[in-house]
Amino acid sequence: MGWRRGKGGLLYRREGRGTVGAPDRAVAGCSIQNDGFCRNVFPSMVVPKPYYEQDGNPQGFIQDDLSADSWDLEHLHPWYVQLSAYGHNEVVVESPKHNLCIATYSPGHGHLFVQALVARGRELSAQPGVRYITLFKQHKCGSLVHPHSQFITTPFIPSLIEALTLRAFQFYRLHGGCSICSSGIGVPAERLVLETQRFVVWVPFAARSPHRLLIAPRTHGSCFFAIDEEEQEDLSLSLIHI
Q1: Residue 155 to residue 128: CA distance in whole angstroms
Q2: What is the pLDDT of residues 95-123, one digit of tens each?
Q3: 142 phi-psi bin (left φ>0, alpha ψ -120 to 50, beta other)
Q4: Closest among 112, 121, 109 to 224, alpha carbons compared
Q5: For a designed S-S bond to 234, which of 65, 141, 163, 198 qualifies (C-beta 3.0 to 4.6 A apart)?
Q6: What are the distances in angstroms from CA 225 to CA 81, 118, 174?
Q7: DSSP state at residue 3
């Protein structure tokens, strides 16, 4: 679903060739202000404690002492101020349970999860105005109380991704090989996390953040959403394991 800003600061979306005005359906969790900005009214949210108790995991609850009464929509941190943009924003709800994570999924559940991501990614890739898709996993955060993943598309390539692509190209010109393969070949045992038939998982050298892992396929491909069924199943098992 692609949202754009129309006259009067209201948001609307396009469905096929028609345009559907949506002043009362704009964006859940956003407030349209007179200055033309859309502000996120959920800067802090966790899964409510009763949901954890209902699912039999009360110890999984994390206390959040930021009450709704303390939200000041007029003086939010700049991180929560959003500018007008065009693109798609979709959420994949992964489970009817509130306290699950990928590590607790069954193999069948994990496979369905990866299949859903690939299917939606392929569909979004074919939409006009989509040049890059950001896919990320959320757990115990955001405006949904279920474990979920999110797609965000942009009509441009982010500068960070463009820089990484250029570096990979320069590496290929200098060394005649793949930079990812070169960094994963001969990884010391203390940094090698998992090897499967189709994927390798390791801790990168001088990782810039704790618990950072690299997951790379054994075959080259230009697009994650082009992986076949066997790779999807293997990836789901790898995600559950790590």
Answers
A1: 9
A2: 888 778 888 999 999 999 999 999 999 99
A3: left
A4: 121
A5: 198
A6: 31, 5, 29
A7: E
Residue 21: what residue type? G
The b-or-e profile of 11-39 (16+ CB within 10 A means b, else e) is bbbeeeeeeeeeeeebbeebebeeeeebb
Sign of CA dihedral 58, 60, 62, 67: negative
- The whole-model pTM stands at 0.65
HSE of 9 in the Cβ direction (CA atoms, 13 Å)?
A: 12
Tokens 């955001």 map to which residue? 142
Question: Locate tokens 């979920």: which residue?
Answer: 148
- Assess contact for 144 and 81: CB atoms under 8 A: no
Given 3-state DSSP classes, what are the helix, strand and coil percentages for the chain, each rounded to the nearest 5?
35, 20, 45
Site of tokens 């966790």: 46
132-138 and 148-154 as β-strands: parallel, antiparallel, unpaired? antiparallel
